[in-house]
Every structure is written in C-alpha cells, then in structure tokens.
Amino acid sequence: MDRLDWTRPNWRCDAEPTHIAPDEPLVYDDAVRAETNHLYERVKDVILPDEWPVHAPLIAAINRLKKERGAIILAHNYMTPEIFACVGDLSGDSLALARMAASVDEDIIVQAGVHFMAETAKIMSPEKTVLIPDMRAGCSLAESITGADVAAIKAKYPDYPIVTYVNTSAAVKAEADVCCTSGNAVQVTEWAAREWKTDTVILIPDEFLAKNVAANTDIRILTWKGACEVHERFTAEDVDALREGHPGVVVLTHPESPEDVVKAADYTGSTAGMAAFVKNTQPEKVVLLTECSMSDNVAIENPGVKFVRPCNLCPHMKRITLQNIYDALRYNRFEIEVDESVAERARRSIQRMLDLPKPDSPGQFDKDRPPVEVGLV
Ligand code: SF4
Questions:
Q1: What lines the ligand 1 site, CB under 6 Å?
Q2: Ligand 1, pocket-test mutation among 94, 136, 316, most atoms within 8 A of CB
Q3: Residue 172: CA atoms inside 13 Å, Cβ hemisphere, count?
Q4: Which of 70, 187, 316, 351 pairs with 256 at a CA distance of 20 to 30 A?
Q5: Which tens digits make up the pLDDT trace of 285-328?
Q6: How many whole angstroms from 123 Cα to the centroid of ligand 1?
Q7: How far apart are CA 156 and CA 150, in angstroms?
Q8: Model's pTM, two decimal places?
C-alpha cells in the first residue's frame, strides 16, 4: 500500500496511478440507462449527453457497490459533478465534511477529496475504514508546513494559541491548539484569543486567509507563508476584466485569495458561504473565483442563474475520478492510517472547533474593512 510521509516538507507522492480493470466489463446498456436516468436529469446542464454513456456504467456500479459494502462517499464541493451529484452521499466544504466524518454510521468511508480530508475522517472515526481513491491527492497548503514546524513555532511563542486550518496534516493538527476552516476562521480566532486571554493568535498556514481574517477582527495575527495554488493565482485585474466583459456580473471569491481580490469582489466566503449566497440571492449572472467544479455543482442547484466560468483547476482534487472511486470500493484501497498518539492530539484540535456553535453566516468576510499588517512567525 502506498503511504504518505507528511513529515517531509514539500512532499510529493511519486506513486503511479494503478487502475485495475474490472472483472466484468462496465457497459452502457438498457439496464444501466434505466438505473441512472434520474441522475442524468440532475446533471444534464453540466454534463454533455455524449459524455454520459462513459460515466453512467461506473456510476451505477459504484452505487451498487456502496450498498453491498456498507460504504458512504463524502464528496467535497470541488469534485466533478458526476462524482459530486451522482455518487456522493454527503457533500459540502471542509467544515461540513469534518462534522459528517464524526457522525456517519457506515463502516467504510470513501473520501472523494484530498488526503488531509481523508485523514480528518479517520481521526474523527478511528474505528472505521477510511479510503482515499488516489494517495497522490495532496494539497499545496498542507504541504507547506510540518508538525516539526508547528512545534518550533510553539516553542518560540509559548503564550499564543496556534489555530491551524484543517487543510493540514494530522501531525500539524496534533501540534496546534485548535483547527479552523474558511467557514469559521474569524470565529475560532476570536474564541482562541478569549480562551488564552491574549490579543495575539497564530493562524497557519495560509497567509492570505490570515490576512483576510486579520482585516475582519481586532485580534493581532501572526501567520505562515503557505498558500492554496488555486486561489492565490486570482488577481484584482481578473475581477476588473470580468466586470468589463460581463457587465452586471456578481463576483464571489474565497478568503484564500489575496486581499485585493477580496476587496474587488462582491462577496467573500467559504465554499458553503458562496453556495448559500447564490441560492439566497439568485443573481442574474455570477462568477465564482474558485476551483472549476464548484460552479458546475452550484449551477445544478440554481438553474435560473447564469455562471461565468473563469476558474482554476486544483490538480490534487482532480486526481479523484469515478474509476478510482470504483477501484477503492472494489479493492478496498487506499486505506488511511493515522498513528493513534498523533490522532488523539489532532482529534482534540478538531473537536474544539466542532464544539463551537455553527457560524450564522459561514465565512462571510467584510471587504470594506481596511487591510491590517500581519507578521510571519
Ligand atoms: S483547492 Fe487549494 S486548498 Fe484545496 S486541495 Fe487544492 S490546493 Fe489545497
């Protein structure tokens, strides 16, 4: 079995993808058509009719296998629509997935997402089998920092609480005091300052999230120089060009983006926040400056909204396919394991976050607040 070594900085898995040919051919016949027609109705605006016969046999086989094996698929908002809407049982952003992982009844969890999400599921449900369809599905943020880095930060700043984004390895969560997501980063930062009776909080590893949180709280923030390779690439010039090319378009962005992008956008929030914004406001035209599949998945729920589609692909999320989800369920691979002593400490950090009340408006950031200086640890 391929194993990750998340203690190595800038880790990259060199494992080759190893798809296994199915024992029986998966074909698009009348039975599969009848079994999947209702699912195609759901996604027909975002998946071409010519593509459906390729997806449908795998979708039918996966949905059958899930029942046989007593498995559940947790699907992140950045999964492609044939995964998100056709085989995912529970879906959402990192915060929602962390909550779900702690409460599902099934014995097998397949994480349709990246490695740190599967690790979080295993930490929260240690007695369950947690599978990730491709061990190479990493994350630029998670790879930017190690548990040893966090231990060194703690030694240097013993009086400040360390809040870590969930987009980190188990080792990093174990060394930190509490986790956060983009949906509750301001809330967790302010909670940590109150609990530790301090005016300074260390919020790692995303520098842009830290700067956007700093502009939305009176707490002083120190951070780390990590970034999401999807959101760091958007610029304020992109927003200007979109407004010029698509007059009236409503621009939504994510707090992992640079501050000037947040300033130029109409709304900034977590992926759950973005989805709720579109649902509640039904703009005529909208652009989601985030990972490409998010627009498809939000479009499925909002057929009256026109989506303008510049976006950035996350190469890690796109490692997950119907084929390797099928292989995961059929061949029980790749199983996530987390050392119990690490898991126990990481669980405490995640649980502290989950014990806080759900934020009223997930991850909403106020673009009119002035930028604030944020130091690096
Ligand atoms: S979108 Fe960004 S934060 Fe999410 S997995 Fe990809 S690189 Fe990591």
A1: 114, 139-141, 167, 228-230, 291, 314, 316-317
A2: 316
A3: 29
A4: 351
A5: 999 999 999 999 999 999 999 999 878 999 999 999 999 999 99
A6: 20
A7: 10
A8: 0.90
